[in-house]
Amino acid sequence: GRRCEELIKPFYVTTPIYYVNAAPHIGHLYSSVIADIVARWSRLSNPDVPVIFATGTDEFGMKVQQAASAEGKEPQEFCDDVSQKFRDLATIANISCTRFIRTTEQVHQDAVQHVWRELVKRGHIYKGMHSGWYCVADECFYTEPQVEKTVDGVMVRHVSKESGRPVEWAEEENYMFRLCAFQQPLLDWLESNPQAIMPHKRYKEVVKTLEDVASIRDISVSRPKSRLQWGVPVPDDPDHTVYVWLDALINYLTVVGYPWRGEAPTGWAEGWPADVQVVGKDIVKFHAIYWPAFLMALGLEPPKQILAHAHWTKDNRKMSKSTGNVADPNEAMSKFGADAVRMYLCAVGGNLAEDADWSDERLRAFYVGSLRHNLGNLLPRIMSQSIMGRVRKCPFIYTEDAPVHEDDKSLHDTLQRIAAIVQEHVQKREFGHTVHAILYALTEANGYFTKLQPWRTTEPVEVCARGQFYAFETLRIAGILLQPFMPSKATQLLDILKVERRGLEAAKVGAEGEGAHLRVANLEILFPDLNPKPASGA
Ligand code: ME8
Hints:
Elements: H1 2-7, E1 11-19, H2 26-45, E2 51-58, H3 62-70, H4 75-92, E3 99-102, H5 106-121, E4 125-135, E5 140-142, E6 147-152, E7 155-160, E8 168-177, H6 183-192, E9 197-198, H7 200-211, E10 219-220, E11 222-224, E12 240-242, H8 244-249, H9 251-255, E13 276-280, H10 284-298, E14 306-309, E15 312-314, E16 317-318, H11 329-336, H12 338-349, E17 356-358, H13 360-383, H14 385-393, H15 409-427, H16 431-452, H17 461-482, H18 487-496
Parallel strand pairs: 1-2, 1-13, 2-3, 9-14, 13-14, 15-17
Antiparallel strand pairs: 4-5, 4-8, 6-7, 8-10, 11-12, 15-16
Bound molecules: ligand ME8.
Ligand ME8 binds at residues 16-19, 27-28, 30-31, 58, 248-249, 251, 279-280, 282-283, 311-312, 319.
């Protein structure tokens, strides 16, 4: 009944909300793709559990204020333009978000002010003089030991050791959040939740930081209005603006309707705590220390998992909007298609712990080798007229209890194990392994087909039928498992194969039922030639 349905906790996934100081680059797309795979995998493996999947833009703060003024625009107008670019990117890349949030929305500003009042009421915020090195690019204060001097020609600059970005000295009255009080509660939380930060490398880093008493200090959560106008006003104090990171993190609560007075869609309130919050390694401190501390201060549960990925570099240098050293996701998707780019991001960047270097050349090679030749070619191979003609006359009938032919054994085993293997990799957040496991099954099927030579009319028709069946099954199972990774191409493949059951439970040999392999529709080219030869005579 309806009552029961409402009690199912939705699976809640988030991406970071992106600063609108410049257009998106491939790193932003990467975060969104990882989150999308997690969301789509949940829908595939638990179709009864609703998914809330939020992404959006982070629009307040000094950084955006400065970027807008550099372009001579009003901040709101500037935010509208750039936010739209992130929204378009999500659409083009097939990111299945259910909510695109902008921090300038009134509903979010109300949530931020509600949180502020709540924190004051609970005694977690106090006013004090605060001094430190502020970094606009990182939107945070650094302490003396976190800053160093660099000499750039004749210029001596102070920069953050962590990010290398310039800092400036600020001494001002701020509201402070009692982070110190949460040092032990945070350690306790992490101790009982070893998967709260993944990959484990990041978990260990955070625990180490928390264990170092000196590294945890109360944090400034407001800036004087004179410095920062573009932000949520501190309630009841017109001289101060809420610190952009406090504002930004609260977006994850705004989405599910906090403070739960009925603004969000029905059932979304049950979405908290978030199940998976995808972030880049640059913002782990904010998500794995500040954020759970804010939540504990509010009496709310911390997220179940912070999933932190490493960075994409270009020419082995950090990709960054401010230096212009970026790969353009729209350009890559228009050349290779959104699905190919998504797959490449997983295949190369799927080991979340290590940085990966972006290269158009390697993407091209991946497209041609793994997608066009490996996956793309198996399809026409099984659908050739001579094969289909012979198979239809004498089809292979698969039964679960019949012994598997010696020739088919290895591929059969691979296919029976692949869904479980993929599921395990996804749970361990090893997206690269996942993609490679599926591509490997396709390679194996191509090798099997080549060895069996079912197209040769000198081979008995029974060999032809078995060969076509197993190659079809490989494509069908791969198609099911690839849905979260390359949603449009996987759907196109399953449509060509006329597959009806597309759930995870159908990812085993024979699951589509007798004769499924004979029903294939018209052949379409899944991954077209990137440099088609001009038509003859042209
Ligand atoms: O930090 N490689 O926004 P942001 C991989 N607004 N991922 C990258 C990347 C790279 N080279 N560069 C950026 C902010 N990213 C805040 C977040 S959340 C409450 C507020 C990804 O526009 C990565 O996920 O600087 C990183 O954490 C995010 O983009 C930062 O985007």
